[in-house]
Amino acid sequence: xxxxxxxxxxxxxxxxxxxxxxxxxxxxxxxxxxxxxxxxxxxxxxxxxxxxxxxxxxxxxxxxxxxxxxxxxxxxxxxxxxxxxxxxxxxxxxxxxxxxxxxxxxxxxxxxxxxxxxxxxxxxxxxxxxxxxxxxxxxxxxxxxxxxxxxxxxxxxxxxxxxxxxxxxxxxxxxxxxxxxxxxxxxxxxxxxxxxxxxxxxxxxxxxxxxxxxxxxxxxxxxxxxxxxxxxxxxxxxxxxxxxxxxxxxxxxxxxxxxxxxxxxxxxxxxxxxxxxxxxxxxxxxxxxxxxxxxxxxxxxxxxxxxxxxxxxxxxxxxxxxxxxxxxxxxxxxxxxxxxxxxxxxxxxxxxxxxxxxxxxxxxxxxxxxxxxxxxxxxxxxxxxxxxxxxxxxxxxxxxxxxxxxxxxxxxxxxxxxxxxxxxxxxxxxxxxxxxxxxxxxxxxxxxxxxxxxxxxxxxxxxxxxxxxxxxxxxxxxxxxxxxxxxxxxxxxxxxxxxxxxxxxxxxxxxxxxxxxxxxxxxxxxxxxxxxxxxxxxxxxxxxxxxxxxxxxx
Length: 554
Prior knowledge:
This protein has about 550 residues and is an alpha/beta fold. It has helices at about 35-45, 70-75, 80-85, 125-135, 185-190, 255-260, 260-275, 320-335, 345-370, 375-390, 395, 465-475, 505-510, 535-545, and strands spanning about 25-30, 50, 65-70, 90, 95-100, 100-105, 120, 140-145, 150-155, 160-165, 170-180, 195-200, 205-210, 220-225, 235-240, 245-250, 280-285, 290, 295-300, 300-305, 310, 455-460, 485-490, 500, 520, 530. The protein has 14 helices and 26 strands.
């Protein structure tokens, strides 16, 4: 298979370069997965945006490779997820080795019907191509290629942006700026901001490999002290369209340029994958980063993805976390722009995604400390764990080859209403809703959530709507803007005055620990804002106000 044919996009003069001055609503700096997702999410809320991308094509190489179920659920709103799964490689088993000895396997496939797999491997450049096609179909998004941001000047009610292009520089104004321009963010530099955190003293080589043969094992494979040499650890993934991704730990004192040469890379890859005809289509060297901005919001400039935080790639937490940043930010920014929420709603983005960044940094730093022990004592302990892990389950649990990405539960979010009654089970406040299968033809639960606030009301075994719930449904339409759309979840054919979702086998009720009358308030990003055993109109109105940043958490 030949290397990916990168399509070059033409430069087109910006309206500002044609004498059409004006203020754009939202300027998004960076046309990678995070910026593209943010633009699509804003457009779904009716908010226009302009994407400023300094390159003329998608990113080079596989980079963010492993897309989680939660990311696919978010991207499914924009017609992208199914294409990613169809073009990618879905893996359900991971294998961990110490030398030539297999220590254990782990499975990923969740129980019950699933719309998307736990993880799909697809090169970032292909994911970006699909996202760009979705952007091109969206009239609310303007894509500007070969537009490099060289300066950012925040003002109280707008942001001035300096842009360099092949036709010369220009300036534009935007009400808001989303900085999604990666680890070397020009916006971050323009504001004089820097990361806090750690850079680990080790180097890892990553490469995309086109193997001209069918390989027998496509599971995710991770080696400690691999028998084929090439470094202290190694990782192998199958990608979309039959490509392979390999990672090798090189150590700290290396010649980076020499290590990237084909004559150094190919022997390592052949030792791992076998002596097959192959071609190296992309190679890079990176160091582990565990760093973040102290704050993600700086007035009308808001940072997302690698521009805001950096983590080790082991565990697939970088790109997936960035997609969730975009989802979290977009609905809040849209509600503020539309006048449906106060400006301080955006401060909750910093609180929630800051928590997510801290969580990812903590988890990936532990992985890095296990992969690259910093003292002789810690290496001795690590090696002892590896020797025991094949036969001792307690030691197996201590092996850390990367804790795979999971969506963050925003446990201490200022937008969440604490439970006022005892709960056992069900998604807690701050958690994303599970994407559960409904009875035909309703599809999956998340198809009916998102875009606005929803109130899931469970009927349990009730054959008719109880009087208390009927009264609640009659009053919900007078809820002030933005309002709440109620959805009934019924165990049988009972229907009510509002849209009803069928849960014939009771699996949705069970997952939500729901009884007759249980209610969940769901945010526009499909996270739980509040839940009640016995909901009331005043309690729901108060929870809505809190979820919009209008009321402090008790």
